[in-house]
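F.,

This is the one I mentioned.
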């Protein structure tokens, strides 16, 4: 286990997250604290690094809780595109459970596609939803999470080296 990365925290939009167990394992291995945020009670492992947050039953209570706290150097795990957009704007690294990163460059198009698909579904043009979660998604997520943690570690190390010189 490595030392906690200054203030890096992983925030999990947990209500429908299929990769919670993977997040716990990676976070514990790297010594990163995790806030598991849900609208209602959710079971989490007994570990001092893992914190369960029942944000309340409001429509966007869990999203609001995460968006108000996540910032630069933090990691947010969500498939909720509006929440991803809010967190990207704060400087947080955002990853979907399928491993897809949300970035400043991609979030605008992702929101536009989401809104278009919502409109098409509500008009009856499209009746299906997204494809089901597959083992390759789990693998892509683990790879993306590990790469993101390592990138933050490098950025922090570079920043520390610059401050010391």
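My design for it:
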């Amino acid at each position: 286990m490595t030392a906690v990365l200054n203030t890096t925290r992983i925030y999990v939009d947990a209500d429908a997250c299929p990769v919670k167990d993977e997040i716990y394992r990676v976070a514990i291995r790297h010594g990163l604290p995790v806030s598991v945020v849900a609208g209602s009670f959710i079971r989490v492992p007994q570990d001092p690094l893992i914190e369960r947050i029942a944000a309340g039953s409001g429509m966007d209570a869990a999203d609001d809780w995460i968006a108000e706290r996540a910032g630069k150097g933090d990691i947010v795990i969500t498939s909720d595109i509006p929440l991803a957009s809010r967190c990207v704007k704060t400087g947080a690294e955002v990853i979907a459970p399928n491993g897809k990163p949300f970035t400043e460059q991609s979030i605008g198009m992702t929101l536009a596609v989401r809104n278009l698909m919502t409109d098409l579904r509500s008009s009856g043009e499209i009746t299906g939803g997204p494809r089901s979660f597959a083992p390759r998604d789990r693998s892509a997520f683990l790879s993306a999470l590990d790469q993101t943690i390592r990138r933050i570690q490098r950025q922090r190390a570079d920043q520390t080296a610059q401050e010391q010189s």
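The beta strands are 10-13, 34-38, 50-54, 75-77, 93-95, 101-102.

Talk soon.
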